[in-house]
Amino acid sequence: MPQPARETEGRPLLPWRALGTGAGVLGGEGLAGILHPALDEALAAADVIVPLVIAIVLLAAILCGSTQTCERVFRLLRWIANRPEPAAPETLLAGTRRRITNAGPDNEPPVT
């Protein structure tokens, strides 16, 4: 029976299979580049262009988007970074709101 991955400081250690899969993917890209030089250039360009396009789209959504879009983008970024969501702000119950006025305790205007 396989052993589960151990955790270090809250993050699980990757099993060796994930390392082998990553090496296989990168090795496949390298092999395709060796076999055909034009494909090597296309893959190298894609390695740079795709992350830049994603970063530009996220930046545009943050700067030009609505409040709801910004919240969703930051939630997506926290999810990608594997970080927990911040605690929600405390909300006031409907019956506990107090009206702030300039009047004193006896409903008289304050003395100046």
What is the strand and helix layout of this fold?
Layout: E1 7-8, E2 11-12, H1 16-35, H2 37-64, H3 67-80
Antiparallel strand pairs: 1-2
Notable characteristics:
about 110 residues, mainly alpha, two-stranded antiparallel ribbon, elongated
Walk across the major sheet and give the strand order: 1-2
- Please report the total strand number as a whole number: 2
- Major sheet: 2 strands, antiparallel
Q: Globular, elongated, flat, extended or rod-shaped: what is the shape?
A: elongated
Q: What percentage of amino acids are in beta strands?
A: under 5%
In helices, the fraction of residues equals: 55-70%
Q: What is the H/E order?
A: EEHHH
- Contiguous uncertain segments of 5+ residues: none
Number of helices: 3
- Taking all Cα atoms into account, the compactness measure Rg is 27 Å
Question: How would you portray this structure in words?
Answer:
This protein has 112 residues and is mainly alpha-helical. The chain is built from three helices and two strands. The protein has a two-stranded antiparallel sheet. Strand 1 (7-8) and strand 2 form a beta hairpin. The longest helix is centred in the middle third of the chain and has 28 residues, at 37-64.
